[in-house]
Amino acid sequence: MKFAFVALALISSLFSAAASDTDDLKTLVSELTVAATQSERLAILDDDKDFVFDFLNAAQIKGAVGKGNGGQAVSAKTTTFPALIGNGLAMTVGFLGPCAQNTPHIHPRSAEMLILVAGDKLNTGTFQENGARFVENKLEVGQATIFPMGSIHFQQNLGCDPAIFVAGFANEDPGTLQIAQGFFQQLPPDTTSATLGELGVEEVKDISKQIPANIAFGVAECVKRCKIDRNSTFEFSEDVIKKTLKEQGILVTIASGSASSRSGASSGSNRTTSSNLLSGNNNNVNAGVSDSNKNDVDDQSFMKNKYHVLVIVLASVCAVLVIALIFAVVIALRARRDARSRGLHAPLPLFSTTGHGKAADSRSSTPFGTEKYAEGATLQVEIELCLSIIVNAKETSRCRVFDTNGICPHLKLRAEVTSTITPKLETLATIVERAAMTSKIPHLMTLADLSVAQINRTLSHSAALKRISKPLLQPYTPATRSLPAVEQTLANKTIALLFSKRSTRTRVAAETSAVLLGGRALFLGREDIQLGVNESARDTINVLGGMCQGVFARVGGHEEIEELAEHSPVPVINALSSLWHPTQILADILTLHEHAHLFGPAGRSANDSNLPALRPLTVTWLGDSSNVLHDILVALPRLGHKVRVGTPPQQAYQCPKPVWDRAKALGCDKDIFWTDNPFEAVRGADVVVTDTWISMGQEAEKAQRLKDFQGYQVTEKLCKEGGANPEWKFLHCLPRKSNEVDDEVFYGPRSLVFPEAENRKWTIMALFDLLVGRWNL
After folding, report:
1. Which Pfam families does the UniProt entry name for this protein (predicted)?
2. Cis peptide bond prior to 735, omega within 30° of 0
């Protein structure tokens, strides 16, 4: 019994350690992401080994290794190699077994440059949107190709020996969407069924269960020629990698230096230890790999230099990545030129996937079409591959006899059926591609859209930007010349300021913060554009999205900004609407953190070292149920604070149902107290907040509103008699009228109004940086 308890404790500790490592990595990634400069990131990565990624020993890193029956891919990206953050680079090493295929997929945020470093021949194929032709190449060792951003592409090892490729990306988080998995496993089955037409919902569900993990065994012809058992699993052991690389004469010379140095190497005992990542048994497939030159496998000199080979290969890929970026620029400019000549609005594939607009033509070529291979074979082979993998994985695994075309005669969907499925698959490719390109546009309508972690991250980033930027704004001196600059994430970018309502703080904050990030803010007032006069919101936002990289909109009804976001190809941030005012509340919360010492001691900050810890507060709202209050209701309770609201009893001043429903859905309602008694509302208040009683557009109601709000003016007398905390502080979003708060409070020591107004700049700057500059909140 004691042994059982000890074993249970040991297992629990192992799981806890693994969970702790994962949490530590997430925390590190989060800290590096919000760091404003490379200097800050260097301080966080205080161990030189943080800048080393071992592709042969990455199994312990969650998400680094993707395995399938045919091989595996090891990826160095932000979540597996945090040192990449802020550098715009990522890399993958692919280990393909005999006949293995890296099945059709998309990288929505980056172009890819791939080089074959070992193997016989690697067949690659790719196509883009708007009916672009299918491009196919068969690479030999030392040859490279590129896959444009957002294109559907694949790699197929055509040989009976293993192959190794290295791929570089021009984005630290390029993203990957597998076509088959995305269509059959992510979309609702009834949507998939309706798209294919010939398949029922249950058949779709059955297909989704049979889709193998990437990397899979590929085309039937190769599998037959190399005598591969589809039920087998190819594992890359250290010996297999060593043999695969040594069969390339150039790599042997690089690794060994010369023939004489190899012959003079020690001939001690063979190394048989496999790496953590690449250990495994090849009994199922080694029949397809030549057994010649066994003595080479045991050669110790190569083992001593295997890392030198990888370093040289990876360094070479980094060098050609620059060439890849040049190619990407050329392709982007040609695509835009061609699109303009056709009257279309084409995306520029150098930025985030939909950063420059949606494709105007819904017809896309797919690898399931009927264009010819270079050697005369049609894409029918590709059709049969996808069908055999997706539809008939089980039945194909039982098939031992193939006809002259390499097709299993027991397949449920025969070759003749493909003629009807092909157009359906073209449609599905378009759907999946567009889903990948449009599902991650980071709009912000309200703080209810953000998690607590995202709110804290934005606040922390705001504080960091403020700390770095303010010294840069001081008069120029030799001392300020050497200050670190703010990372220019908006360089060459323009943010459209779409204002249907005038503003002082919002406009100035937006324009000045965009400049600090290296961008430009283009102010567009009601009189400057055709919106609402001769042009719809949908048309306007698509035009703006083609010329600007973000939209900061201050509108009337909330439905106006929702329509903008629905059709926008670039991030849309709500600068103010009738229901919500998220940027104001971010500034309010940042202000409270900066003045946390005024509210008494608190524990360690739950947010970040950039933010002073803030104890749980009681925040009172007096006045109208405005957009400012609405974002308070969905944000402050989730951050650990209580909210007390005092409004007149008339229905017009109560919380709108959509807002209250969001608050309840987020669990905020239990920390909200509502009353029509202003004295009751301020009881125990640490902070008192109010807003204008008469918003723009309500001037006709002025007389009635002034009458209804009698007794709600914020004064020292009201808060003292109501029982507010003796050290209570005051906030107001401005502009202010004296009937809302008297001068004693507004200009007195309780007021945090002007620091609050300045913080509009830093929180808006953080949103511009994260949402428009990085597309990552």
Report:
1. Cupin_1, OTCace, OTCace_N
2. yes
Where are the alpha helices (H) located in 290-442, listed in sequence order?
A: 294-297, 300-342, 380-390, 393-398, 418-438
The predicted-structure confidence for 66-100, as pLDDT tens digits, reads as follows 888 888 899 999 888 998 888 888 999 999 999 98
E strand or H helix at 459, and its extent? helix 452-472
The three-class DSSP label of residue 67 is strand
Burial status of residue 651 (CB atoms within 10 A of its CB: 0-12, 13-18, 19 or more): exposed
**493 phi-psi bin (left φ>0, alpha ψ -120 to 50, beta other):** beta
AA letter at 664: K
- What is the layout of strands, in order, in the sheet containing 65-68? 65-68, 71-76, 90-96, 163-169, 112-118, 144-147
What pLDDT digit, counting tens, does each position of 652-690 carry?
999 999 999 999 999 999 999 999 999 999 999 999 999
3-class DSSP state of 586: helix
What is the largest distance, in Å, between two alpha-carbon atoms of the chain?
100
Q: Which helix (H) or strand (E) holds 118?
A: strand 112-118
- The closest alpha carbon to 758, from 448, 463, 460, belongs to 463
Map residue 456 onto helix, strand or coil.
helix
Q: Are 489 and 517 in contact (CB under 8 A)?
A: yes
Instruction: Give the pLDDT of residue 489.
Output: 95
Q: Which residues are catalytic?
A: 733
Amino acid (1-letter code) at residue 651:
Q
Residue 754's H or E segment, with its range, is: helix 753-767
Determine the straight-line distance between the first and last CA of the chain, rounded to whole angstroms. Answer: 50
